[in-house]
Amino acid sequence: MISTPRFLQKLLVTALVASGVAHAAPLPQAFTDQLNSLYPSVESLYQDLHRSPELAFNEHQTAAKLAALAKGLGFEVTTGVGGTGVVAILRNGPGPTVMLRTEIDGLPVLEKTGLAFASTVTTKNAAGETTPVMHACGHDLHMAAWFGTAKLMADNRKAWSGTLMLVGQPAEETVSGAAAMLKDGLFTRFPKPDYALSMHDDASGPSGVIMYHAGAFRASSDVVNITMFGQGGHGAVPHETRDPIVMAARLVLALQTLISRENNPLDPVVITVGSIQGGTVANIIPDQVKLQLSVRTFKPEVRKRVLASIAREAKGEAIAAGAPKEPLVEIKQGTDSVYNDPELIGRMVKVVQGAVGPDFVKEMPSKMTSEDFSQYGLQPGVKAILLHVGAVEASRLAAATKAGQPLPGTHSPQWAPDFKPTVINTIKAETAILLDLFAEKK
């Protein structure tokens, strides 16, 4: 990853958008007319996917649906890549190879949208527990757009030349599906893409507004599990114990100083203690407490330092409390930060402006949420960009902003994107970008 100062990234993007490096031609009218005719099928697919979500690495029916659709369009389709992943290849003469990815998994969330096609699915999770399932992050919308774009590209092969690679990726919500597909030969068994593209819906923007950010865009994500060991005993005689609950409480506060006093304020870091488990009743001091942390960073060097410092703080609190043994610190590395190449972003902004109109293309800030799409751009020779698309009806978003009342966002049981304008502009943007990239000569 090349680290470019933020002000230079903005200058580069601005210069490229203003220059003639990229074409601002509108999407051909034939594509727009075809999209209008195609829309009912896209909406029907979305509703079907929404009412039948599946959890990570269990997306068997979802993958089968995408595979059947791609086969029907003339793609060479392979299933079971990286577990439940789908790879569809359309070879259309000489030119670059471009990958369009969609995620296919849902979340363990009980849907509360009230939609006529709301999910009522329940399933067993990895622990064998019954859990509800919902497409609470918009992956159903992404898949519907993926199909719509594939259909336009397949029906207009005379308009482009190259190899289109469609990827239906499992387990994005657990940030493990991209790595699983790469390990299973995604870029060795199949053509290695010159470019990789993905889109994600977003609750912070008006419906259909394509949003971009050059440079580090989405944060890396790691999970840290910590077990603090103490010496249990009666709650009435705490002096005869070594209380791990107190150790854990002090650790929660100490961890925040890693951000406020050890980290450069210009290098964003988030440490969230999402779970503390210890004890059974009020008058018993337990002998151990378990904490689960989510850690988000952008820079690899910051990530390494923060994870090491978390382990240091945990050990320090144990020593200070006279604990009988060192805490157990387990780091489960998740995924790396998404990095959008500034030059490619500048070029694509101009292209998307031509497809959806300048008023529907906006710069957005980076986000501390994570996306394992990052793994594709880390592969040598692959330029990858992740764009977002606003998915909230404009007047509703404006009213909520004015009132200072946040609306339900992704991962909420009430998340329901404003589908039609969002998916139409997503398809337009994806198609325009693909056409531009395929215009290159190799």
Automatic annotation (TrEMBL):
Q: Which GO terms describe its molecular function?
A: N-acetyldiaminopimelate deacetylase activity
Keyword Hydrolase in the entry? The reply is yes
Indicate the transmembrane segments per the record.
none
Signal peptide residues are 1-24
Q: Its GO biological process terms? A: diaminopimelate biosynthetic process
The UniProt entry, under InterPro entries, shows:
Amidohydrolase, Bact_exopeptidase_dim_dom, Peptidase_M20, Peptidase_M20_dimer
UniProt keywords (A-Z) are: Hydrolase, Signal
Domain (Peptidase M20 dimerisation): give its ranges: 224-317
Pfam families attached to this UniProt entry: M20_dimer, Peptidase_M20
Protein's name in the database: Peptidase M20
Q: Which organism is it from?
A: Massilia psychrophila
